[in-house]
């Protein structure tokens, strides 16, 4: 026999599910702030094993290679004829005090560039980028947060590394062969080397965001920094080479990370502006594509 159940109170009306979901989306959107995106990118950056390993290698290369170079050429160091105690900073090796101490910058630029590449291509290879962009639908804050995290982190590491390499190198060279930060142009070269490494890390980030492929971005970085400066003067007419080569990122950086830039290079201020232009164009194109391509 069927039993009929009579309720003493009416069943309350429940809001439609679509309205609830819409409210949830609104709440999520309100909670996505610039500082939270930056904090998220910082957590991802420092928690990667590749970050720790890459930074450790960069420090060893910057300081270790500078000390090794100073030990090799100790007693056979000459001062350039220009102002200051040395030229060719930012990785250019020559037998003058400043350049010897900063000999590790040539290899270090590739290492920090790879650090920038991995900061974004690692997310594409693992698929994590989909979750990141789903949490931040506007997308661009993710890229700008990565720029801030990579830029600040690299600069904070590169400054003491550059000064440490310089100090240790000059100590190994010894009195009579060394130079000091008070000499004209030396402080600019040492600090400029740290600024240059920071710019190269951001250049790697831009290439990674543009190509979305680790090997391709690292190959492009290597070619742009090391291959092009030596190859273009050989394959281009001299007039073309003289007009193009100084505007490559590595040569532009050398202009302000050297006490005495090489002949034909840009001025320190001009080189800094050219390097900034490279970053603006590359990151600008990457941002434009990020808004229009699927993750």
Automatic annotation (TrEMBL):
Residues 1-20 are annotated as: Disordered. GO terms for cellular component: plasma membrane. The chain crosses the membrane at residues 52-73, 99-122, 143-166, 186-211, 218-236, 265-290. Keywords: Membrane, Transmembrane, Transmembrane helix. One of its GO terms (molecular function) is ABC-type transporter activity. The keyword Transmembrane applies. This is ABC-2 family transporter protein.
């Amino acid at each position: 026999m069927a039993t009929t159940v009579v309720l003493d109170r009416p069943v309350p009306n429940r809001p439609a599910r679509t309205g609830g979901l819409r409210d949830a989306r609104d709440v999520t959107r309100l909670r996505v702030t610039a500082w939270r995106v930056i904090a998220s990118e910082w957590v991802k950056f420092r928690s990667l094993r590749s970050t720790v390993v890459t930074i450790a290698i960069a420090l060893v290369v910057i300081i270790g290679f500078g000390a090794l170079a100073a030990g090799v050429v100790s007693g056979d160091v000459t001062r350039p004829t220009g102002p200051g105690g040395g030229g060719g900073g930012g990785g250019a090796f020559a037998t003058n005090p400043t350049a010897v101490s900063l000999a590790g910058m040539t290899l270090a630029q590739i290492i920090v560039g790879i650090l920038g590449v991995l900061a974004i291509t690692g997310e594409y290879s693992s698929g994590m980028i989909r979750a990141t962009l789903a949490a931040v639908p506007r997308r661009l804050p993710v890229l700008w947060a990565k720029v801030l995290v990579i830029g600040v982190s690299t600069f904070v590491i590169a400054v003491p590394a550059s000064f440490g390499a310089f100090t240790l190198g000059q100590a190994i060279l010894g009195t009579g062969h060394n130079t000091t930060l008070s000499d004209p142009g030396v402080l600019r070269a040492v600090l400029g080397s740290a600024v240059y490494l920071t710019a190269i890390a951001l250049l790697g980030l831009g290439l990674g965001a543009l190509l979305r492929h680790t090997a391709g971005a690292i190959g492009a970085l290597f070619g742009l920094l090391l291959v092009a400066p030596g190859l273009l003067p050989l394959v281009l007419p001299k007039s073309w080479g003289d007009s193009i080569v100084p505007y490559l990122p590595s040569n532009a950086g050398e202009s302000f990370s050297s006490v005495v830039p090489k002949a034909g290079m840009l001025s320190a201020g001009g080189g800094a502006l050219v390097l900034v232009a490279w970053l603006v164009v590359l990151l600008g194109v990457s941002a434009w594509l990020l808004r229009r391509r699927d993750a």
